[in-house]
Amino acid sequence: MFLFKKIRLKHLLTAFSKSMDYVDKALSNHHLRVACIANDIADAFDLPRQDRVNIFLASVLHDIGVFSLKEKLELVNYELKNPHAHAEKGYILIRDFKMFCDISNIIRYHHVPWDYGKGRFFDEVEVPIGAHVIHLADRIEILINKDQEILSQRDAITKAINSRKNSLFIPEMVEAFIDLASKECFWFDASAPEIDQTIELKGIMSDAEIDIHELVEISKLYSHVIDFRSSFTALHSAGVSAVSSLLAQLVGFSSIECQMMSVAGYLHDIGKLSVPTELLEKQGKLTENEFNIMKHHVYQSYRILASVKNMETINSWASFHHERIDGSGYPFHLRGKDLPIGARIVAVADVFTAITEDRPYRKGMTEEQSLRLLQELAAQNALDSDIVSIAISYIGELNDIRNALQTKANNDYSSIKLSNVC
Prior knowledge:
CATH topology of the largest domain: Hypothetical protein af1432
Order of helices and strands: EHHHHHHEEHHHHHEHHHHHHHHHH
Number of domains: 2
CATH superfamily of the largest domain: Hypothetical protein af1432
Structural class: mainly alpha
Strand order of the largest sheet: 1-4
CATH architecture of the largest domain: Orthogonal Bundle
C-alpha cells in the first residue's frame, strides 16, 4: 500500500513553472521572476492579500498558452505584434479548472494595454487589476539582461517603463514601480538566481495543501502544456494516464493508488518541455546526438518532480518509464527488483499508448499487432511479463479507455488550435 501525503500547492506550481521555461536558457525562471516582481508591485500598489495571491498564481501560469520556442522567443520583444493569442490559449486551458477559475481572466488579459484608461475593458469585459500588474511585471522582467550586473540596468529599465506610462501601463502603478526601483533589494530579488527561495522568503503564498483529486486535475492541465507543443504528441499523456490507471486497478492497486498512477501518467513526459519541438516532430530515425538529447527528458522529469516534497512515489513511477527489466533502459539503468511496480506499469502503458495511438504521419497499430509487439518486448525482458500478460488479457478495455480520454484531449487540443484565429 502506497500512502499519499498532501502536497503544498506553491511547491508544485514553482516546480512546474520552472519546467515551462526549460526550453531556452534566455527564458530561465521567467515565470517565477514575473511572480516576484508582480508581488512587489501589487504590495506597493496596496492591493489586498487575496488579490496578491491570485496575482502570484496567475504569474506562474501566465504564459501557459505558449507552446513553441518561436512563440516564447517572440515574447522577449518589448513591443509585441500579437500578444493576445497565447493569452487566449492560456485562458482556454485553465478556465474549466475549478481551483483556477479566479485567475483565468487575469491570464486572458495580461497583455491588455492601459491605453489612457481604455484598458479597463477588453471586448466589453472588465479587465482584472491583476492583469495590469502582470503586464507591467512581465515587461520589466524581459528588459532585464541576465548577463549584466543588475543595478547598472536600473535607470534604463525605469526610463523605458516610465516612457510608456498611461499608454501601456496604469500611471499610478508605474509610480509605485518607480518607488520600488529606487531600492536595490527590489532588483536583487528580481534577478536572484535562487528565485524560488526568494519567493519562499517573501511568503507570497500560504502553505495551502492539495489532495489527490486536486493533484490529478493540475497534472491533467500540465499534461496539455507538455503534449500540445506538437500535434505528434498532442494526446499521448492522456492515453498513458488512462492506461496506467486501469492497469494499476487490474493489478490490485487501491483507489488512491490508481489516482496516483493517473498523475504519473499525466506527468511522465514533463521533461520533454526541454526538448526542441523539431525533435518531437521528426518522422525519421533520430541521429545519435538527437537521441541523446531525447534521452535527457526522463532525467529532467525526475529532477522536476524530485523538487516537490511528497511526490517521491509518483516520481519513481513516472520518471523510470524508459528503464527496462534487463537494465538496458535509461537514464539510471535500473533493473529487476530496483524497478517499482508502478514504473513497470507506466512503461507498459507508455509503449502500448505510443504504438496504438494515431499520429499525423502514421496509423496506430491494431490490437493484434500491438499484442505481438508487447509479447516480444516481454520475451526480451524489456517489459514486465506479468503486467504485459494482464495488458494482453484486457487489451480491448485498455484500447477503449485510451480512446475515450484521448478523444477528450483531442477536443481540448482542437479548442486551443481554433483560438489561433484571435
